[in-house]
Design a protein that fits this description.
Cofactor: pyridoxal 5'-phosphate
Radius of gyration: 19 Å
CATH topology of the largest domain: Rossmann fold
Order of helices and strands: HEHEHEHEHEHEHHEHHHEH
Number of strands: 8
Strand content: 5-15%
Distance between the termini: 32 Å
CATH class of the largest domain: Alpha Beta
Helix content: 40-55%
Keywords: Lyase, Pyridoxal phosphate
Shape: globular
Structural class: alpha/beta
Number of helices: 12
Protein name: Threonine synthase
Strand order of the largest sheet: 3-2-1-4
Number of domains: 2
InterPro entries: Ser/Thr_Dehydratase, TrpB-like_PALP, TrpB-like_PALP_sf
Oligomer: single chain
Organism: Lysobacter niastensis
């Protein structure tokens, strides 16, 4: 969203609209305010309170620049609402895969940082596998684009990590499409999950995510709520700090990934945590 705000300013756009499961909208508000932009955020009303509350507080403090619309039950309905009410009236959509690619350019940071030399090394290289919590899938495309560009300038070779996309079993369109051998997802009925960022019943760019998964020799896998909760509680006991539910979903997927041979012992594997734990704490207290 830092990239979105910067590009919008560069091109003279002043009014941005985004549907979100939470984090993207919260982030856009912060960068938009710093950049002198106005923004409307549409999100489900069951978004974790620190996220929803942050946007609501900004809307109260800056009523002429931030508007919050509670629309759900998922980002899909929020997006349809903005298309009907705001986009025809001059607001520029920065929804996933519906803006000019700025969000993918921002998400390239993931791929660049994963390829950078680790301490003590000088050679750019990639891990053997990346476990990524996948809702809309912008991060998957961003990482892949970064690696293609690094290869084009001779920084890395053609080998790619296995892309292992993790979803909640309660809303798993990518997993269903991958298992069925389908070229794209079909919209599924959304469930209720602690990992609200994964509660995406269908995505505009899922066909490309599936292409990348298959090209990398990866997979799309689902974890259930009990597994996410168990991993969240275990992470607290280990470090007295939380990872986000989406990050916990990645760690919870490790046993099945090992069993299926998608991750092997001794490999360099990266599991990505995509959310700030403090934004979820009120909904996770029961796991302490």
């Amino acid at each position: 969203m830092a990239m979105v705000a910067a590009q919008a300013r560069r091109l003279g756009l002043t009014k941005l609209a985004v549907p979100t499961q939470g984090n993207a909208g919260d982030s856009l508000v912060r960068y938009a305010l710093e950049g002198g932009l106005s923004v409307v955020v549409a999100m489900p009303d069951d978004t974790p309170m620190p996220i929803l509350g942050g946007v609501a507080a900004a809307a109260k403090r800056y009523p002429d620049r931030v508007m919050l619309e509670l629309v759900g039950p998922t980002i899909r309905e929020a997006g349809a609402f903005l298309k009907e009410r705001y986009i025809p009236n001059g607001w520029f959509s920065v929804a996933t895969f519906q803006e000019p690619g700025w969000r993918i350019e921002g998400k390239k940071s993931l791929g660049l940082e994963l390829a950078e030399p680790v301490p003590g090394e000088t050679r750019w290289s990639l891990p053997d596998a990346v476990i990524y919590p996948t809702g809309g899938g912008t991060g998957v495309l961003g990482m892949w684009k970064a690696w293609d560009e690094l290869e084009a300038i001779g920084m890395i070779g053609g080998r790619r990590p296995r892309m292992l996309c993790v979803q909640s079993a309660r809303t798993a369109p990518l997993v269903r499409a991958f298992d069925d051998g389908a070229a794209d997802t079909t919209v599924v009925e959304a469930g209720q999950t602690l990992a609200v960022g994964l509660n995406v019943p269908g995505g505009v760019g899922h066909f490309r995510v599936l292409d990348i998964i298959r090209a990398s020799g990866g997979a799309a896998v689902a974890v259930d709520e009990a597994e996410i909760e168990t991993e969240l509680a275990a992470s607290w006991r280990r470090t007295h700090d939380w990872i986000s539910p989406e990050g916990a979903a990645c760690l919870a997927a490790l046993p099945q990934l090992l069993d299926r041979g998608l991750v092997r012992r001794g490999e360099r594997v990266v599991a990505v945590n995509t959310g700030s734990s403090e934004k979820y704490l009120p909904t996770l207290r029961h796991l302490l």
